[in-house]
Amino acid sequence: MAVNAFIDNAKVMAKGQVTIPNHGMICEQNVDEIRRIFNKKFPLRLSSLDKFLSVALLTLELVPVPENEFTIEVQIRDTLGVKGGKR
């Protein structure tokens, strides 16, 4: 099954593909989105996702979503891809 192959490949990658002094990071928002998508498309495979995340989060730093938006962020956003953005 494609989901199992994805989970198995991701486990291998999470276990040792980031070399010192680098380290992997993932945002809480990304984890929430992955769970939302799995719940919608693969509701019977949520236990596989939880197993993957339990292994992946041993090596990845979980970065919290900032509560407040910083004004400088507007300067680094790509507005061309946003509906109504300036061209």
Explain this structure:
- The protein is mainly α.
- Helices cover 49% and strands 9% of the residues.
- It has three helices and two strands, in the order αβααβ.
- The chain has a two-stranded parallel ribbon with strand order 1-2.
- Helix 1 packs parallel to helix 3.
- The longest helix is centred in the N-terminal third of the chain and has 15 residues.
- The chain is extended, with a radius of gyration of 17 Å.
- The termini are far apart.
- The mean pLDDT is 76.
Count of helices? Answer: 3
H/E element sequence: HEHHE
Structural class: mainly alpha
* Largest pleated sheet: 2 strands, parallel
Shape: extended
Mean pLDDT equals 76
Beta-strand percentage?
Answer: 5-15%
- Binned, the helix content reads 40-55%
Report the span from N to C terminus.
43 Å
The largest sheet has its strands arranged as: 1-2
- Gyration radius, to the nearest Å? 17 Å
Identify low-pLDDT runs.
none
Q: What is the total tally of β strands?
A: 2
Secondary-structure blueprint:
Layout: H1 2-16, E1 24-27, H2 28-41, H3 46-59, E2 60-63
Parallel strand pairs: 1-2
Overview features:
mainly alpha, two-stranded parallel ribbon, 87 residues, 2 strands, 3 helices, 49% helix
Task: Describe what is shown at a glance.
This protein is mainly α and 87 residues long. Helix content is 49%, strand content 9%.
